[in-house]
Amino acid sequence: MTAAQVADTSGISILSPGDDQAALRAFFQIAEAWNLTTDDQLKLLGSPPRSSFFKMKKDGGQLSRDQLERISHIINIYKCLRILFTDQAMADKWVVQPNKAPFLQGRSALEFMARDGYLSDIFQVRRYLDAQRG
């Protein structure tokens, strides 16, 4: 699950343009590890049309900058969880279990990120995990 990472001027780690296929492979591997539904995957990707989503899943495709940034944050969430939890199953479960983090208000991270599908919600989970990691 390696994809070239760069930092934009705001310091947010994003995938480079041209990393579309690596980003999609990583996203779908993470989606499988987290047992995400198609609807969850669509929300996390910014709600592309279903036909475009299934084409990307089957054949790959070109991603928008927004989609690349979303996937970059999801990859970083996945990596943070792998660092915080030595048990991979626990790391994968964290995403779907109710959480006591104040901003999550008892919801799971997935529910928080996919509820409205805002990029800022995905980033907030990433920022929280980065802080927990130290």
Structure write-up:
Helix content is about 60%, strand content about 5%. With about 130 residues, it is mainly alpha-helical. The chain has one domain. Strands 1-2 form a two-stranded antiparallel sheet. A hairpin with a 5-residue loop joins strand 1 (about 5) and strand 2. Helix 2 (about 40-45) packs across helix 6 (about 110-115) and helix 4 (about 65-85) crosses helix 5 (about 90-95). The longest helix has 20 residues, at about 65-85. It starts with a strand and ends with a helix. The model is unreliable at about 1-15 (pLDDT under 50).
What secondary-structure arrangement, pairings included, does this model have?
Blueprint: E1 5-7, E2 13-15, H1 20-33, H2 38-44, H3 50-59, H4 65-84, H5 88-94, H6 109-116, H7 119-133
Antiparallel strand pairs: 1-2
Helix pairs in contact: 1-4, 2-6, 4-5, 4-7, 6-7
Percent of residues in β-strands: under 5%
Structural class: mainly alpha
Q: Kindly, what is the distance between the CA atoms of the first and last residues, rounded to a whole number of angstroms? A: 23 Å
Rounded Rg: 14 Å
Strand order of the largest sheet: 1-2
Helicity, in percent? 55-70%
Largest sheet: 2 strands, antiparallel
- Counting H and I runs of at least 4 residues, what is the number of helices? 7
Shape: globular
